[in-house]
Amino acid sequence: MALPSQARSTAQGPRFSSSRSRRRKNPGEKIVLALIVGVPALILVWVAWPSSSPSPAHATGPAALALEEPEPGATQQTTLPASQPRTTQQRTIAATPERPTPQSTPATTPIPEPTLRLEGDTDEAAAATNTTPTPAPATTTRNAEPIPDIPLETRASPASSGDVNALLLIAESARDSGRLVDSRLALNRALHHRGATPQEQAALRARLTELNNEMFFGRAVVPGDPLVETYRIGSGDSLSKVVQMHDLDVDWRLVQRVNGLSDPRRIRVGQQLKLVRGPFHAVVDKSDYRMDIYANFRDTDGNRLFIRSFDVGLGEYSSTPVGMFRVRANSKLVNPDWTNPRTGEHFSGDDPKNPIGERWIGLDGVDEATRDYMGLGIHGTIEPQSIGTDASMGCIRLLHDDVEIVYELLASDACQVEIVP
């Protein structure tokens, strides 16, 4: 008679020595089949699973695993794309780009850590993040042009932000728009600019002379010109009286010149005159044999306003002294007599051989270097070929027409003459 266990084994197949089958009986064939199939599958999954077990929140499939960043120093054992190591360094930025969602990223596509080039990053910082710095877009620098409704006084000083070319553009634009006063001021600033070359200064003096022939020596009264004003002749007026009454610090002949009067006595009541206000000052450049006349008015950079230049002759053997002088009181003469101090020879004012011509302006020294000089003056000459040379006894010579203008500009006791090497 067969034992019960033997009969059961014959009906159901071979016995298992598993402890699980000994502890409790299999409730049915389905459970047995599940165990037979499931256990090997679990073993295969266990072997293939990464060594660092993900948390339940991360167990969302391969796509989620591809986005995960391994901890620093961890070695990845799968063929999934490697991502950037996690770091604890933080940077303050305006906005951080969002990572793409796991559902939209294929498992085989790596997602690099986004790299931002922040404003202010240096090239060294860009190299540290393996980022090639993007060059700044090219900009075109234009020379400054004036805005028509902004006065010249609000523009920057050429000593800090301007240059000669920029000031020339300002002058051209101002003249094209009819603002002759601003144009002259810009040219004057360019003339005195520390970056102006001698050639540029010569060209600027020529342009200023041309402009002043129109604005200053011409009949026109340019609105806003600080050097000129108008006056209507009253009963009993004369040119010398008008000049004295208005303290113009010029010779009355200058008023006659700028108004184009052929006869200063032929003025009438109610006639409008252009008046020119001084004082004016002279600078004699010995090295260039040149006299520059400046108005007492100063531009926005503090420079006296250039009026005109004149060629001069100087003392033989460099005898014309260097220093500061002023026009001596009651020293200005028309058709003066002159006695040669070396020979004692005397020349009357009307003598065509009079070496000093038809004008004389006496000078007094006003500093230590010039105070003891006597008899120095500015005058004309009957030897025009001596202009630009050292031929006088120390005085400053001018051509006939030039000395007349200088005589009219330089007033006694009010005007300075500086002689520079």
Task: From the alpha carbons, calculate the radius of gyration and give it in angstroms.
Answer: 50 Å
The overall pLDDT average reads 74
Question: What's the oligomerization state?
Answer: single chain
CATH superfamily of one domain: L,D-transpeptidase catalytic domain-like
CATH architecture of one domain: Beta Barrel
Number of strands: 15
State which percent range the strand residues make up.
15-25%
Shape: globular
Instruction: Name the poorly predicted regions.
Output: 1-27, 47-161
Main structural class = alpha+beta
Summarize the helix and strand pattern as letters: HHHHHHHHEHHEEEEEEEEEEEEEHE
- The percent range for helix content is 25-40%
List descriptors.
single chain, 421 residues, alpha+beta, L,D-transpeptidase catalytic domain-like, nine-stranded mixed sheet, 27% helix, 16% strand, disordered N terminus
Structure description:
The protein has 421 residues and is of the alpha+beta class. Among the domains are: 151-218; 228-277, Membrane-bound Lytic Murein Transglycosylase D, Chain A, CATH 3.10.350; 278-421, L,D-transpeptidase catalytic domain-like (Beta Barrel), CATH 2.40.440. Helix content is 27%, strand content 16%. It is built from eleven helices and 15 strands. The protein has helices at residues 4-12, 19-23, 29-48, 62-67, 123-128, 164-176, 180-191, 198-215, 239-245, 252-258, 400-409, and strands at residues 228-232, 272-276, 280-285, 290-298, 304-311, 314-315, 323-327, 333-334, 338-339, 346-347, 359-365, 377-379, 390-392, 396-397, 416-420. The strands form four sheets. Strands 3, 4, 5, 7, 8, 11, 12, 14 and 15 form a nine-stranded mixed sheet that branches. A two-stranded antiparallel ribbon has the order 1-2. A hairpin with a 6-residue loop joins β9 (338-339) and β10 (346-347). α6 runs antiparallel to α7 and α9 (239-245) packs across α10 (252-258). It is globular and about 145 Å long. The termini are far apart. Residues 1-27 and 47-161 have low confidence and may be disordered.
